[in-house]
């Protein structure tokens, strides 16, 4: 069920009405049933996959807890021996569960990539597997593995009720494209009893409308140019810059718009999901960008990969060695940089099984590592050049610089291959022309569309201006939604009507691939 | 009391949306001959119904066929009509009068593509009067589609904004109220009686190859097959005879893409055989009277000129007379 | 405690560590800074800090950090 289908809207409507009509203590059961209906509607077979993750993680959580509590009760004589035994038992459980779940994800997502590499090296022709990637497997796997590690680290107790845990893994609004939730943030909200609240519902509907606006008016319009240029990049070398700028608009509109819809829908049930975007294009560094873009993936990576690697024994040894060799400051930073590069390598691979994504991840990781290493020097240079960190000009410079760096990374994200990305990057600095953009020759509609492409450009600029304005206000810490909701009803209605009717008038139908970009992960 | 006010507000808001959307509907959705086609099956009693694509629309003149068969028929083929649409057109027709026979014009290109939501997705659905068939049609076609197709039925007609004055003028005219067809008369084609579109010869207009979609069995759209089976079942249940045909295309195209068209012919022959349906593929029949030269077609894809259609319709009539 | 404040000042100067209680919540310390602090604390106080300890509660203020160090020293 695509988020933009009529079926889904009706599904949500029925879900919400049911949710507030049944006795409150059954609300979470209702959500569980709906989530499984939603999941099963895209294929009965794939229910097996989500059940697999749910069962293994649930069991592991319980076992981990049991082992710990047994230990607390059994104060026998040989304490340190017993403690060791328990640690290794727990480790065995966690490692097994991690391997089972990430193994499943890995096999489904990366087998063909590995076969491809193998074929290249060995000259064999092993045929590819035709796996169907189960809906949202990346998102629910990450979510449940986060839970597993938290229970392992005893950050909280496991969930003992299997069905409640199943709801945490499968909560339908977020299963398609995140955000990746944490058990301690989401679970209690799912199980609490919620009373319908008009203001809350209005805020939620606002958010949904806004999400559709970003998706249909920004992303789908931008996609027409972006697809046109990227698919025929050799014909239009002078449009590489336009293509990548367009992709910025498309990806942001698509992904953050989709998340807006998801957060809005969860809001209709009185559930607050974590924000996944915070005005990313106002970021002042690449590291800052990742604190504002796909935030829940970033924090997941930080908590479950970055810190554990950084604090591992191997890294600590490396750190000591580095301190001896390179001095205190650099030696201290080097292991962190190394861990950071590993994290972004994983982020890259997460985006897809292809070299271009590995480069995409490494590119981000290396920039952050480099600026980490250079941080002290930058401070010195800034002092020497009398640059004030808080001056507006400096901030604008940082934002523009970061935007350019981010756009360079998009070439790898969007192009079909590393080769294409490099060629387009080269073209971006050596060629520039705009006529084929305006005369409509890049739009793959097969008819003469000169005016059409200018109209779409105008719509895009208009849409960007609105989204920029709203982002600018939010960046200045003003809660736009709260401001809007306190306005008189006439103003609110006018805003809603304009947003609503912008969808059919200014929006485009989704491109051939259909639906949302991040729904394929 | 508070809730009452809130609910009232929402109802008012929705009513406002409906009014605005209705206005757009009136201004943007043009008068289409599909309305006349649908009106025909409601008003008249037919023995034979043709369903299929633009090839059938331009190639089959019911009046000519009827002269040979002595029956009464109408052409419900349409450019952009997939089997899921044909199926409901038949159901709608049966709601008023049960035909004796259905002639399905199969265009291979329509079997390897999906109905696109980037075109006027609702054009046939929209012309149906309210009924259970319409509800079923809605569930089949629109429920999984983009919600804008439902909430804003004019959504895919929005590019017609320059035509608003003429659309309004037409819709206010007597012609529209009486299901007249004069407005469909253009330089290149006209809509004639019983749903036949007559394509005129135009001097100096190059013949296009744009529409050509080649057969590839791997790409067969399963939704089509599903509705084909449904149609077969439905005809069986209602005791309606079902016949399938493929209209001729220019010899030049046929030879250039011989492999594709051969494969398609094999596929359809096998499929129809499996369901015991008579299938005439006029591209592979020893029928000398059919003009296969490119002179008979308005493009390489196989849309016949009106005069060639005249000729073909008589030949079709002969085949329909066979028992 | 004085040692701790010196470490903090060395890693990221210009913060009022004695009074700030939202070092993490307000994003004063990023992950690089956090790990630098961990690395220094481990060396200075001869303790071992595991991923379990990396939670905002332990890093939001100098006092919280100090409490964590004391706790780990005892273990």
From TrEMBL, chain A:
Compartment(s) of residence: Cell membrane
Gene Ontology MF terms in the entry: acyltransferase activity
Record flagged with keyword Transport: no
Transmembrane recorded as keyword: yes
Membrane topology: Multi-pass membrane protein
GO biological process: alginic acid biosynthetic process
Residues annotated as signal peptide: none
Keywords: Acyltransferase, Cell membrane, Membrane, Transferase, Transmembrane, Transmembrane helix
Predominant cellular place of this UniProt entry's protein: membrane
Pfam families: MBOAT
GO cellular component terms, semicolon-separated: plasma membrane
UniProt xrefs under PANTHER family: ACYLTRANSFERASE (PTHR13285), PROTEIN-CYSTEINE N-PALMITOYLTRANSFERASE RASP (PTHR13285:SF18)
Family: Belongs to the membrane-bound acyltransferase family.
Protein name: MBOAT family protein
Species this chain originates from: Anaerosacchariphilus polymeriproducens
UniProtKB/TrEMBL annotation, chain B:
Keywords on record: Membrane, Transmembrane, Transmembrane helix
Organism, as annotated: Anaerosacchariphilus polymeriproducens
Protein name, as recorded: SGNH/GDSL hydrolase family protein
Transmembrane segments: 7-33
UniProtKB/TrEMBL annotation, chain C:
Gene3D superfamilies named in the record: ACP-like
Domain named Carrier: residues: 1-73
SUPFAM superfamilies registered for this protein in UniProt: ACP-like
InterPro entries assigned: ACP-like_sf, PP-bd_ACP
Coiled-coil residue windows: none
Protein's recorded name: Acyl carrier protein
